[in-house]
Amino acid sequence: MNRQMEVLSVTKHFHPTKASFLAIKDVTFHVNEGQFICIVGPSGCGKSTLLKMIAGLEKPSSGEIRFEGNPVTSPHHKISMVFQSFALFPWRTVIENVEYGLELKKLHKKDRGKVARECLEIVGLSGYEKMYPKQLSGGMKQRVGIARALAVDPEVILMDEAFSAVDEFTAETLREEVSEIHMETKKTFILVTHNVAEAIELSDKIIVLSARPGSVKDIIDVELNRPRDKNHSGFIHIHKRLFSLLKEELESTIVRHKIKEIHEFHRLHNIE
Amino acid sequence: MSAKNVPENFGPGRLRGLNSYIWVLPLIMFFFAWEATVRLGMLSQSKIPLFSKVVSAFLLGLTSESFVFFVFQSFINLTFGILLAVLAALPLALFAGLKVKFDSAFTPAIMLVGALPDLALLPILVMWIGPGNVAAVTMAAVCAFFPLFFTLREGTKSIPEEFFHVSTVFRSGKIDMLHKMIFPAILPNMISGLRISFDFVWEVVLAIELIASVSGIGTFINSSIGSGSLESAFAGIMAIGIIALSVDRIVLATLESRIRRWQG
Predict the structure, then answer these.
(1) Of the listed ranges A218-232, B5-19, B243-257, the one predicted with least confidence
(2) What ipTM, to 2 d.p.?
(3) CATH number of the structural domain spanning residue A214
(4) A184: containing domain
(5) Chain B residues with beta carbon closer than 8 angstroms to that of A90
(6) Which one, of A18, A21, A68, lies nearest residue A49 by Cα?
């Protein structure tokens, strides 16, 4: 299998004010064509930043991200994205939202409509073309978001916490649908999440990031048959392993915070 | 899944048929009360003319060339002023809303000038430009600029960051980003900005015309009061009212009904 996407010792600094802030530190992994990859890590570990860099929305401070061998410096036409809070344009109807990417590609109006209708069919929203986002539930909005990402026929779909803004039941259905879309279309998916079970349910490979600054703590291959059963011993085994990895990270951050607080307290009260 | 159970007339604020003319009712009630109180002698006719007399003075005015010309002249001057203000405010507001550095550098200065009393600045403007319609248009533009600038800047600033990510990920160019994302997103602010500046320039129409030494409906009202013809003065006010109402109902309400379809 070829290495479609390569993340090569990527580091990201931010400079909000004077102090430089290290978000991502020396992250390296690769994604093969057609794989479903999850990036998990504790909140604030920079996993969304990492995804933005893959999308070409941010540039790495050092290191390189390569897509099909070429460095990604700006958004690539074969990479599209699904957003956490859906990010649908409220002034556009459902179908107009799905057509957005195609419009920018200057596709003919007729073809746009055809492609958009097909994509809405895939996500089960036929009949909702003329509605506005405000008329839809959260789950339906995210379906539109997925249809919009599919419409431009990408090779890679990036998902930033795509299931975390809807209720758990809706999220479960969405995950099943995305898994089906993945199996049918053979597109590559990269999902950022903090949900351990979600990662195991969906992915071929899980990149576990450490707490800030995010660096690769572990890479876990998930070789369970799909559709995946949460009660399967293999599932539970990986779940335990992932959970303890993340718990370690979380605890280390809490301890670090505590130590920082104690130092701060000492400094304020001039205690040596 | 089917869309059958969603009502066709979905969303608030959609009035149909007779209901969309409901705003006429309070106006009729007001005019009736006016006519009645003056007729019954509760208000002196030397201070307020009968509503019916104002209407006939207005209708008479419509047949007089000068009255129609005055109304037309004021309308043209103020409307051009507002258009100029949009042309100036829109790019500046976009810059201020999108570029933090530009915003923190220039917005305080714009805010300061906006806080100065417009009516005190206008005579200085006339001193520079010289009296005439150009000065009147410029003054209307100055008055309309600030409400437009601030509402448009606010609108631009409140565009969610993810919308920019969506545009960028789907490889939108700068021009597409403007007309497919930013303009539709700030349309509601454009409408309220236009509404505020429109109200404001008509409020100061007399001042503008006096300072610029041009004739228009403002000066017409002023001179009618001077010559003791109250009916004509009120007829002039009525003309302004009708213009304001028509612009509101025809231009702004049409735009508003477009955004109401999608606004949450």
Answers:
(1) B5-19
(2) 0.90
(3) 3.40.50.300
(4) 3-235
(5) 262-264
(6) A21
A16 three-state secondary structure: coil
Query: Is residue A154 less than 8 Å (CB to CB) from chain B?
Result: no
Cis before A227? omega within 30: yes
pTM for the model stands at: 0.87
Supply B259's token pair.
Answer: 């955004």
Asked if A126 lies within 8 A of B187 by C-beta distance, the reply is no
**Which tokens sit at A71?**
């460095």
Q: Is domain B50-260 in CATH 3.40.50.970, yes or no? A: no
Report domain extents, chain B.
50-260
Contact A79, A155 (CB under 8 A): yes
The region, left, alpha or beta by phi > 0 then psi within -120 to 50, assigned to residue A127 is left
Quote the CA–CA distance of A138 and A146 in Å, as a whole number: 12
Burial B161-192 (b: 16+ CB within 10 A, else e): ebbbbbbbbbbbeeebbeebbbebbbbbbbbb
DSSP 3-state of B180: helix
Per residue in A164-194, pLDDT (tens digit) is 999 999 999 999 999 999 999 999 999 999 9
Which of B128, B122, B123 is CA-nearest to residue B142?
A: B122
CA gap A80, A204 in Å, rounded: 20
d(CA A173, CA A169) in angstroms, rounded, equals: 7
pLDDT tens-digit readout, B31-45 = 999 999 999 989 888
Please count the residue pairs, one from chain A and one from chain B, whose beta carbons lie less than 8 angstroms apart: 80
Chain length of chain B: 264
Chain B from 145 to 164: CB within 8 A of any A CB: 160, 162-163
Number of structural domains chain A divides into: 1
Tell me, yes or no, whether A88 lies in a domain. Answer: yes
Distance in angstroms (rounded) separating the CA atoms of residues B24 and B45:
26
Question: What angle do helix axes B65-98 and B51-63 make, rounded to 10 degrees?
Answer: 90
**Which residue bears the tokens 């307020």?**
B48
Phi-psi group of A112: left, alpha or beta (phi > 0 → left; psi -120 to 50 → alpha; rest → beta): alpha
B169/A55 CB distance under 8 A: yes
Residue among A87, A90, A132 minimizing CB distance to B166 = A87
Buried b (16+ CB within 10 A) or exposed e, B67-97: beebbebbbebbbbbbebbbebbbebbbbbb
